[in-house]
Amino acid sequence: MRCSMEARGVSIDNSVPGAGIILRMGGMKLNHTEPNTAENLCRRGLDLLAAGSPAEAALAFRAAIHAGESAAGTLTEAQVEAHHGLVRALRDAGGLEQSVAAALALTALTPGDPLAHTALSISLQTAGHVPEAEAAAARARIVEWKVQLQSPPGESAADGGSLL
Fold this sequence. Notes:
It is a single chain. This protein is 55% helix and 11% strand. It is of the alpha+beta class. It folds into two domains: 1-78, no CATH class; 95-159, no CATH class. A hairpin with a 4-residue loop joins strand 1 and strand 2. The longest helix is centred in the C-terminal third of the chain and has 21 residues, at 130-150.
């Protein structure tokens, strides 16, 4: 697979299985030699996002989503994290409508994840869709309440600890 953003002078090439990824930025070429697993690509996306390169991070997150695809069609934890990262990277790169679309896809893939609905709400708010953002925030609260109700008494769904 080869993802690129030629207009920005950035490309990620992971077309050689097991060879890692090559990140090209302008005249620079950075080899990232870890195997092309969804986990490693997601980690690379997080590193790029933290380094202030959201457009490049979006490429890595997309590669992570595709690297983790399975025949069963179920999402791995790394793919879910990559979807969350993609939503944030697109938003930070100024692709607000793309971020909203990615967040909508995430909520469809993980309807029981309150953070997916929260990510959608933030993206909608940032894109200026305030009524829709408020509705998504309300859905996030409802999903979180459902998660809490399904947890054993005295335990939080997030960390297994006390709700107090």
